[in-house]
Amino acid sequence: MDENILKKIEETQRLLEDVYVSVEKTRKLFFWMLIISVTLFVLPLLGLAVALPGMISVLGGDLGGL
Q1: Nearest-angstrom CA–CA distance, 47 and 58
Q2: What pLDDT digit, counting tens, does each position of 4-23 carry?
Q3: Any stretches that span the bilayer, and where are they (predicted)?
Q4: pTM summary value
Q5: In whole angstroms, what separates CA 10 from the centre of its chain?
């Protein structure tokens, strides 16, 4: 009976290690998805902050002649 219990404990330990590896892969995936999502949101905002004043001045200059 003790052998059976030890086998089950070893099996459970192996399965737990497999779950841990899977969870770590999932955590890394979510981390990189967050980094990419934030980057794809922030970079266009920074570009817009740089380009918008120039665009407004060009459009304002064109409309000022009316």
Answers
A1: 17
A2: 999 999 999 999 999 999 99
A3: 29-56
A4: 0.65
A5: 35
